[in-house]
Amino acid sequence: MQELAYKIKAxxxxxxxxxxxxxxxxxxxxxxxxxxxxxKALNIQQSSLSRHLTILREAxxxxxxxxxxxxxxxxxxxxxxxxxxxxxxxxxxxxxKTEAVLSSLGKEK
Length: 109
Prior knowledge:
alpha+beta, Arc Repressor Mutant, subunit A, 2 domains, about 65% helix
């Protein structure tokens, strides 16, 4: 049972593990957008965008609705940002440490 829980968590994190998917999530943070506006804003081809949107939707991160021939996407659960925000904080700390190390290299005699 525990193995299944780890697999589910890993699959969820795998869905987040792509720069374009993270861009899509950040872009949709402000609200629902149609596929065309996502393509234009992120400068990505439709075939590639469709693949990423499908992965995010199947992971339960995005939801979609169709109105006529237009498909709209939105964040399924805004708690996703409670996952992404701590990661950004951790990376900022790591960057500060790296900057401190690099700046100390120039100060050695």
